[in-house]
Write a structure and sequence with these properties.
Layout lengths: L3 E7 L2 E8 L2 E6 L5 H11 L4 E2 L4 H13 L19 H10 L8 E2 H7 L6 H9 L12 E2 L17 H8 L9 H5 L10
Parallel strand pairs: 1-4, 5-6
Antiparallel strand pairs: 1-2, 2-3
Helix pairs in contact: 3-5, 4-5
Length: 191
């Protein structure tokens, strides 16, 4: 059968999904133009061809589209092809799938939940490489301070802030130059 893909409509634009015999291999949020989303897909999976999705993939598409309309949808039953994904990243993805719609966690909380305190950087790296956008809702994991930072390369032109806004989650404003350069605590003694 080989790998297949399809491009589908959502409230934020045309997304892509690729799959193989072992399950979903990747989900792509829209770029500014559909051709750019297709180009990104082909850069990773040159052997993929456009085809009609199976019932399971169609259910995943409907769930993704519902979430991108601001509705809650359970995607835990979608089979993900984790071939080639490191064991720690798989654990991160499995945990992140349990974060409820409209809620967020920070990287440290995910690391602690995985009994890997101090592994916040590794959690961030795993989520930055997340090929299963929305199914593994990496947008629900934020920097300390609940800042919405970068999204994975499959995020297209969509930001974490926008995805969280669609879900109704509260997010801190982006960091300013002052947040980066100045310490959070005052160094002056308090009277």
């Amino acid at each position: 059968m080989g790998r297949g893909y399809t491009i589908f409509d959502t409230a934020i634009g045309r997304c892509g999904i690729a799959w193989g015999e072992a399950g979903v291999v990747s989900v792509y949020l829209p770029e500014a133009r559909e051709i750019e989303t297709r180009r990104r897909l082909f850069q990773l999976y040159r052997d993929t061809r456009e085809m009609r999705p199976s019932e399971e993939i169609e259910a995943a598409i409907k769930g993704i589209a519902a979430i991108l309309r601001g509705r809650n949808s359970d995607l835990s039953g979608v089979t993900l092809d984790m071939t080639g994904i490191p064991a720690f990243a798989q654990r991160v993805y499995q945990f992140v799938q349990t974060i409820p719609h409209g809620e967020t966690r920070i990287y440290d909380e995910v690391a602690s939940a995985l009994h890997a305190p101090g592994a916040a950087y590794s959690v961030a790296q795993a989520l930055q490489r997340n090929p299963f956008m929305i199914i593994v809702p990496c947008h629900r994991v934020l920097e300390a301070g609940h800042y919405a930072d970068r999204i994975s390369p499959n995020g297209g032109s969509i930001s974490k802030r926008r995805l969280l806004s669609i879900e109704g989650a509260r997010v801190s404003m982006s960091k300013t130059l002052f947040d980066v350069l100045l310490p959070v605590e005052s160094s002056r003694p308090q009277p």
